[in-house]
Write a structure and sequence with these properties.
With about 500 residues, this protein is mainly alpha-helical. It has 24 helices and no strands. α6 packs parallel to α8 and α12 crosses α23. The longest helix has about 35 residues. The chain is globular and about 70 Å long. The two termini are about 35 Å apart.
Length: about 500
């Protein structure tokens, strides 16, 4: 069989034919390492943004310890609603945001789109410090959820558009580690602001907390517009050769080009995602997982049950988040190296289950504080860190479908956080036995969903091993042909390579 024509690809990327990389393996390897270094440097603002996103959302939990609830005359139910409402607006906006971001990839760069959203949520966070009552803070929280919806799914999809499956887990983890460190740095920042700025300019300390964090977020958002990458075909700070190589890497990784069908509409990815059973399983998994980790939004409150002062409570709430961040990076690195997701995810669920059992069993100060470390470790595995990499591995092509699947997973995950906002009732304190029991059952359900997904992927891999070009659907065949075109090989060779590149689970 003759090689397919390469003219289409040359027109698409407006550069030299990518086959040149295959003829110079040493230069190819050097160029690829240089490309990865450039991309990894651009990860730094993503990590910082992830930290600011979480800090702006959880700042209210710190502010509660210094009078926010009493100053705004909030009842316990109203406070829980203020916590939850951000997710009520955040969840429905995730899928449309990613669809818009993806559909406008030829017109609007993601660096500008995400950067503008960061600036907007920073302004909203700053304005939260000016709220006077329940209605005003509810309005700010609703708008905050809408603005933040662009970040996590958008950046997760963006990473999956640049990195191969053996690179994606670690990079996704590094980004989500920023969210974990937000709990640590947020606690330290809150301890400093709430402990030293009370009454300055006749302003309550909790208001200063929102002012400082919001203004810093705005500054970072402006820098983001210049620092974040765009897509492989339109990133301005890469050479034509590097852009070609970025697209070729993804085609070689899966054996299919990272493209949609020629006539695909903005809704085609949505249709494909909602007809894939794996997408629903990932959604339910994310929901149960987020419900089981809903304690993250009440961590300072749980730490306060140990009986220490406000400043001591905030300082004690920081260390438990450092451990899952470190363990999560190591775990993701090993997961990428081995190409395995399931066991690298669920092992930390079982560790967290031990922490929940301890919390249910005793009120001893040392034991409860140790249990908080174990509970936080659930975020080292699946919660956000490896889950999104697993979704991208399980639903790699076409990119429109992958984009929607990632957003749906995050949307349902945050819906679990929304529900979890109401399970930590003040009347259940300080033991919170019903709360911990709900988390325990949810975590067990998470393990079950993960096992089912793993079993489905094993069956899909058996199907891929017997794949034939004539037996594949039109869109899959088109992506295999485009991969052959990009690599400069025959379609038979591209199909043979596709059979060797099985899904990671």
């Amino acid at each position: 069989m003759s090689k397919v024509s390469r003219s289409g690809f040359a027109e698409e990327v407006k550069g030299a034919c990518p086959i040149q990389f295959d003829n110079h393996p040493e230069r190819d390897s050097c160029t690829e390492r240089r490309l990865r270094r450039k991309l990894d440097l651009r990860l730094v603002p993503m990590i910082l943004l992830a930290m600011m996103s979480s800090m702006d959302r959880i700042a209210i939990t710190f502010a509660r310890l210094k009078g926010l609830q009493s100053d705004l005359h909030l009842t316990d139910v109203q406070y829980d609603t203020v916590i939850a409402i951000v997710y009520a607006s955040y969840c429905p906006a995730l899928v449309p945001s990613n669809m818009v971001d993806y559909s406008l990839l030829g017109l609007f760069r993601p660096s500008i789109y995400i950067g503008c959203c960061v600036v907007i949520w920073g302004i909203i966070s700053t304005l939260t410090g000016l709220t006077k009552d329940y209605d005003s803070i509810i309005t700010c929280r609703v708008l905050l959820g809408l603005a933040e919806a662009a970040f996590y799914p958008g950046c997760s999809y963006l990473l999956s558009s640049w990195y191969t499956r053996k690179e994606l887990g670690l990079r996704t983890t590094l980004m989500f580690t920023g969210g974990l460190m937000a709990h640590a740095f947020g606690s330290l920042c809150a301890a400093a602001v709430l402990g030293t700025m009370e009454g300055i300019l006749h302003i309550a300390a909790w208001r200063w907390l929102f002012f400082i964090e919001g203004i810093f977020t705005v500054a970072v958002g402006i820098l983001t517009m210049w620092l974040l990458p765009d897509y492989p075909h339109n990133t301005r700070w890469l050479s034509v050769e590097e852009r070609n190589l970025a697209q070729l890497r993804l085609a070689k990784d899966v054996g299919e080009a990272d493209i949609d069908s020629e006539n695909a509409s903005i809704f085609e990815g949505l249709r494909m995602a909602i007809t894939d059973m794996k997408a629903y399983l990932f959604m339910f998994l994310a929901f149960s997982l987020s419900l089981s980790t809903s304690f993250t939004n009440f961590f300072p409150t749980l730490t306060a049950t140990l009986g220490y002062s406000t400043t001591a409570t905030l300082l004690m709430a920081a260390p438990p988040w450092v451990l899952p961040a470190i363990v999560g990076v190591v775990n993701a690195w090993h997961s990428d190296r081995t190409g395995e997701r399931f066991f690298h995810s669920v092992i930390y669920c079982w560790i967290s289950i031990i922490g929940l059992v301890i919390s249910l069993s005793t009120m001893a100060t040392a034991a409860r504080y140790f249990a908080q470390y174990l509970m936080a470790l659930s975020l080292s595995g699946m919660c956000g860190i490896l889950l999104i990499a697993w979704v991208a591995d399980a639903i790699p092509r076409p990119p429109g479908k992958r984009s929607v699947a990632i957003a749906l997973t995050m949307g349902f995950g945050n819906a679990g956080t929304l529900v979890g906002s109401y399970i930590w009732k003040e009347s259940w304190s300080p033991q919170y036995h019903p709360s911990f029991l709900i988390c325990l059952c949810s975590l067990l359900a998470t393990v079950v969903f993960a096992f089912i997904i793993r079993a489905m992927q094993r069956q899909e891999n058996k199907h891929v091993e017997h794949l034939k070009i004539d037996g594949s659907d039109k869109d899959e065949r088109q992506r295999i042909e485009k991969a052959a075109e990009m690599e400069g090989v025959t379609i038979d060779d591209a199909l043979r390579r596709r059979k060797q590149l099985l899904n990671s689970y």
